[in-house]
Amino acid sequence: MKRENMVGQHIKNYTFIRxxxxxxxxxxxxxxxxxxxxxxxxxxxxxxxxxxxxPKLEELVKTExxxxxxCKNDNVIRFVDSFRTDNYVFIITEFCNGGDLxxxxxxxxxxx
Length: 112
Hints:
By secondary structure, the chain is α+β, with helices and mostly antiparallel strands. Helix content is 27%, strand content 36%.
């Protein structure tokens, strides 16, 4: 399934700036939030069609949102919001400009 590039689009309170990651099920964007206390956020975008075609994915997305909402720790990315449109599910989190944990560990070799 070809993914729509959302760079430059404005959805809800978020303007998509650039792609910062892609996986089998989602694309993650850096975005600007024009409301709220965090200006720059990360937005994971999952196509509703993929979830309809892969029922387990729907369960995994719901679990991810539930876990993110429940984590309140300075060392865990902060959950900001989530919402659905007819075509997509959006999971908004705090933006971490240092990259993901895998790349950090490749460079640092360990976490102090």
